[in-house]
Amino acid sequence: xxxxxxxxxxxxxxxxxxxxxxxxxxxxxxxxxxxxxxxxxxxxxxxxxxxxxxxxxxxxxxxxxxxxxxxxxxxxxxxxxxxxxxxxxxxxxxxxxxxxxxxxxxxxxxxxxxxxxxxxxxxxxxxxxxxxxxxxxxxxxxxxxxxxxxxxxxxxxxxxxxxxxxxxxxxxxxxxxxxxxxxxxxxxxxxxxxxxxxxxxxxxxxxxxxxxxxxxxxxxxxxxxxxxxxxxxxxxxxxxxxxxxxxxxxxxxxxxxxxxxxxxxxxxxxxxxxxxxxxxxxxxxxxxxxxxxxxxxxxxxxxxxxxxxxxxxxxxxxxxxxxxxxxxxxxxxxxxxxxxxxxxxxxxxxxxxxxxxxxxxxxxxxxxxxxxxxxxxxxxxxxxxxxxxxxxxxxxxxxxxxxxxxxxxxxxxxxxxxxxxxxxxxxxxxxxxxxxxxxxxxxxxxxxxxxxxxxxxxxxxxxxxxxxxxxxxxxxxxxxxxxxxxxx
Length: 488
Description:
The chain is an alpha/beta fold. It has helices at residues 10-18, 24-42, 50-65, 108-115, 158-166, 182-188, 222-232, 250-256, 276-291, 307-322, 341-352, 355-368, 373-394, 420-424, 431-436, 465-478; strands at residues 45-47, 77-81, 119-124, 171-176, 191-194, 214-219, 262-266, 295-299, 400-404, 440-447, 453-460. The chain has an 11-stranded mixed beta sheet, sandwiched between helices. Helix 2 (24-42) runs antiparallel to helix 3.
């Protein structure tokens, strides 16, 4: 059985652990062996620590034997996007500028998972500082999609999504600034949740765009995502944007909330640019909900076409500010050719940052500069307000929205590398949700003729994750795509 453990859900594995049919050590060893076998081809991880996680697994087995299980995720392997701080562990953000940086503290999300007995297994690859949609912007390696190794896994959390899809971990954490959890989840055929802004503490998350960033989980099933969210959600005094929301029992809510729901379909999300094959699966999913008694309502998000420019002005401006701290003086790469303070700053950043990060810093600095701040940044914030109002009006009529997650299935590595605008359009259906601070989940809804996964995005009301997860689980129970695995 141990050879098959890496493709089971956390809920299934938890039952096996409870019944003592397997041990946590057997489980982590299965994941380690799987990773050693396929990691040279997938390249999802930047670092792993075999000795440490085996010790953690032994401790988990001892707790269970003593009747002191900490949570449903006690003994379950969890990988972490290498943008979340973990004390004593290298934190690179997939950037040369942080290549040798060791974190002095632990992020709240990781700390809560570790306190719940989860085994923190490995650091996953990403686009440098989470800036990208393909993981081709990593300074260290390109991650490959487990369904087709010649294709991208999505980004920026592509290492996390690929690791879950390939059986190199059971659960993974990512961050989502404009779709960086949902888009790779869709392209790798797993479940990915971007929670409401403020529901999960951002303490310990290396900042890209502070008003947009949010931490969330990847897993094979909606139930596993719910179990992970249960642990990482909740107010944190270390994060001033953390919201004091009541945290329901998400797993129980899934079982209790059976609908039917009133679901909206935004007409702007089904226009030009949506791949015909992807459209077919999204429309089939919408039809499924309709056949099950849900009322389907066409809604309009009239400012949807302004999301891309509003996002890339807001995100780059905040990135420019947040990344100013990487100066070559305190804790980052320092150029060996520098002769004075100005040299240290300019040359260290020129050597340490990749092209995409430089591009966004330059754009962000420009829109914040004197004479352009009002014309660009302030106007983008006004558009952001309009986008949020569009969603508020839609949610007066419906419980949730059904949309594609990505306009296409996974594209080939290098296909869009020289065309930044084309790459930015990969997130056209996801970025509005970050601008509005809403929760969104991507779940598998089919496979193309090339056997590539397609994702359905469900968008919920603020802090209505319980209902969002129930709507997603309802579809998953009737379409158990998680039982299909890539043949690596």
